[in-house]
């Protein structure tokens, strides 16, 4: 679905040249995969995501989305149709004064017939469980609801892939839960390829694969269990692990027969019950 | 520096069809030197409450007294008589805003200067400090948020990543050296190390300089680690108020109002359901490890 080869990117060329924000990224994301990207502030996550839907094009190397090279400027709308993006701040993404108009914005720009637009809007709102709010004003919604409307707006474009850049950073616990469940649903049931960028380590535990970025490079990757069992390496990269994993790790270091790959409360509880 | 709030009510768009009661008869007293976590779901009134604390919003009813200055004096009077207190109130507000620093939600949207240094210097310059003092304050504030002065001082704030912008915005308020520091979700979007660094720095400022700190946060884990007191809001009211240990025992109440408890609290509860008999007020990783070890050792005997 997404293939990056030897990808380099800097924001400014020439005299006021800035350092490479992406510093040699190689990456392949398969159709239907659920990939989480973690990394310290400024490590290049957002930059990478912006190259994934053609907002920026590579300084060197190439990135191909569903067979289309993003450097191919004529194809930019084809790329945006295939790879949608959802950002951090729910307030900056909603443009219309009524929820359903907001969701219709994308498909309208595609010039689809109005019946098709209607159908897509209803379907998208239904998928994120926001149909009941379709005639409401977005500014009266909670943060989690606003994000789900933003997601519906992307869904209405029928993308194959959605890139989420910290969609939960500004939400309260229930809003986070709503959005995380929505993302997982889109991947599992709607078969959408998901790239999810987050600083909440516990949001990564259901991913197929976790990529860790550091200074413009991918420095670690693997299943959540493989990645999060490397507590010390992650710490050195300015990152963390879920609390349960940390407890497991420390108990193991203290000599108890506990796996350091536990990601959930249930896994650790089962082990501790067996121990005693 | 204490903050006393009496019967505070705030209604947005009063008298219109959009009328919203954001704060509903709040009584609170925050003593000098407390480290308070303010939690509640989106729209529960947290942001409205903290904007009252430095006089950015005028309450619909009620009183706010900051460090013995009654910033709401006379507001309850009819318009004509209110004027009598206007000058005094204005003077007090200026005093209060110097002492009470407020870091807004999404403060990075308020960065506007050409360089990081200029942005952070903006506040101290307005205090009328001499250049060398302003520079010192900028350097200190940047150190506090973990940004190297030489690396970042001449960068444009717009060329920074999201988390880096956040740090600049927080540094701007720290450079004012306030006595009370109120931060609205300061760690949203920061990486784990940045989160720990900034919270650690706030804790140090609090411990060493007797700074009163009030943090609005959605991270229950962070609040468990750092706050001395948690105030929980729902629908414009304070519904729980106590130490994090006591507040996080109320799992059902918190979940019912859209909140959660730290993952550790869920772990402790699940273990207790299996007969581990751990104390039910454990809220940190280290606390959990110690208690689990205790039980395992006893059982091994
Ligand atoms: N518009 C821009 N102009 C110049 N440099 C930029 C710009 N945006 C980001 N950068 C730089 O590129 C690098 C990577 O930034 P990026 O925003 O991709 O990081 P990130 O991993 O998304 O960080 P965060 O976790 O803070 O969101 C950083 O060094 C940053 O300062
Ligand atoms: Mg980013």
UniProtKB/TrEMBL annotation, chain A:
The keyword Nucleotide-binding applies. Residues 2-240 form the ABC transporter domain. It is found in: Cell membrane. Keywords: ATP-binding, Cell membrane, Hydrolase, Membrane, Nucleotide-binding, Translocase, Transport. Transmembrane segments: none annotated. Signal peptide: none annotated. It comes from the Bacteria. This is Energy-coupling factor transporter ATPase. It comes from Fusibacter paucivorans.
Automatic annotation (TrEMBL), chain B:
Residues 3-260 form the ABC transporter domain. GO terms for molecular function: hydrolase activity. It is an enzyme of class 7 (translocase). Its EC number is 7.-.-.-. It is a peripheral membrane protein. Its main location: membrane. It is found in: Cell membrane. PROSITE patterns: ABC_TRANSPORTER_1, ABC_TRANSPORTER_2. InterPro entries: AAA+_ATPase, ABC_transporter-like_ATP-bd, ABC_transporter-like_CS, ABC_transpr_CbiO/EcfA_su, ECF_ABC_transporter_ATP-bd, EcfA2, P-loop_NTPase. Keywords: ATP-binding, Cell membrane, Hydrolase, Membrane, Nucleotide-binding, Translocase, Transport. PANTHER family: ENERGY-COUPLING FACTOR TRANSPORTER ATP-BINDING PROTEIN ECFA2, HEAVY METAL TRANSPORTER. Forms a stable energy-coupling factor (ECF) transporter complex composed of 2 membrane-embedded substrate-binding proteins (S component), 2 ATP-binding proteins (A component) and 2 transmembrane proteins (T component). ATP-binding (A) component of a common energy-coupling factor (ECF) ABC-transporter complex. Belongs to the ABC transporter superfamily. Energy-coupling factor EcfA family. This is Energy-coupling factor transporter ATP-binding protein EcfA2.
């Amino acid at each position: 679905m997404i293939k990056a080869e030897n990808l380099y990117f800097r924001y400014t060329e020439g005299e006021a040249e800035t350092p490479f924000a992406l510093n040699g990224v190689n990456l392949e994301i398969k159709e239907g995969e659920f990939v989480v990207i973690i990394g310290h502030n400024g490590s290049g996550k957002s930059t990478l995501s912006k190259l994934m839907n053609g907002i920026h094009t590579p300084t060197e190397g190439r990135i191909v989305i569903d067979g289309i090279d993003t450097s191919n400027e004529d194809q930019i709308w084809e790329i945006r149709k295939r790879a949608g993006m959802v950002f951090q701040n729910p307030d900056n993404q909603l443009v219309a004064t009524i929820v359903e108009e907001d969701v219709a914005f994308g498909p309208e720009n595609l010039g689809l017939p109005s019946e098709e637009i209607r159908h897509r809007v209803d379907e998208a709102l239904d998928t994120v469980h926001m149909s009941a709010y379709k005639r409401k004003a977005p500014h009266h919604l909670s943060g989690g609801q606003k994000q789900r409307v933003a997601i519906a707006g992307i869904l209405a474009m029928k993308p194959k892939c959605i890139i989420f850049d910290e969609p939960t950073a500004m939400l309260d616990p229930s809003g986070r839960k709503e959005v995380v469940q929505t993302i997982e649903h889109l991947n599992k049931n709607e078969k959408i390829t998901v790239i999810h960028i987050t600083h909440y380590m516990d949001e990564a535990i259901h991913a197929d694969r976790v990529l860790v970025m550091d200074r413009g490079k991918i420095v670690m990757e693997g299943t959540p269990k493989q990645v999060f069992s490397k507590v010390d390496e992650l710490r050195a990269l300015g990152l963390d692990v879920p609390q349960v994993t940390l407890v497991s790790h420390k108990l193991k270091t203290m000599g108890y027969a506990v796996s350091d790959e536990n990601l959930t409360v249930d896994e650790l509880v089962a082990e501790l019950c067996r121990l005693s | 520096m204490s903050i006393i709030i009496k019967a505070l009510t705030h209604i947005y768009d009063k008298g219109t069809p959009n009328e919203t009661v954001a704060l509903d008869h709040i009584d609170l007293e925050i003593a000098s030197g407390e480290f308070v976590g303010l939690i509640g779901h989106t729209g529960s009134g947290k942001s409205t409450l903290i904007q009252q604390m430095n006089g950015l919003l005028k309450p619909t009813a009620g009183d706010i007294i900051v460090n013995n200055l009654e910033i709401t004096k006379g507001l309850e009077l009819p318009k004509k008589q209110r004027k009598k207190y206007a000058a005094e109130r204005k003077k007090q507000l200026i005093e209060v805003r110097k002492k009470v620093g407020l870091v807004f939600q999404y403060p990075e949207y308020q960065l506007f200067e050409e360089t990081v240094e200029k942005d952070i210097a903006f506040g101290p310059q307005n205090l009328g400090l001499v250049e060398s003092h302003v520079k010192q304050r900028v350097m200190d504030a940047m150190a506090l948020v973990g940004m190297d002065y030489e690396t970042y001082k001449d960068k444009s704030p717009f060329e920074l990543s999201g988390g880096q912008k956040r740090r600049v915005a927080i540094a701007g308020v720290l450079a004012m050296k306030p006595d009370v520091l109120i931060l609205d979700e300061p760690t949203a979007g920061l990486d784990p190390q940045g989160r720990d660094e900034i919270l650690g720095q706030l804790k140090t400022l609090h411990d060493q300089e007797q700074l009163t700190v009030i943090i609005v946060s959605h991270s229950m884990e962070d609040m468990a680690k750092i706050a001395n007191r948690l105030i929980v809001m729902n629908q414009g009211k304070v519904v729980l108020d106590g130490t994090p240990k006591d507040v996080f025992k109320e799992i059902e109440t918190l979940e019912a109002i859209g909140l959660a408890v730290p993952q550790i609290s869920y772990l402790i509860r699940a273990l207790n359901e299996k007969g581990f008999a751990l104390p039910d007020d454990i809220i940190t990783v280290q606390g959990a490890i110690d208690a689990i070890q205790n039980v395992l050792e006893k059982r091994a005997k």
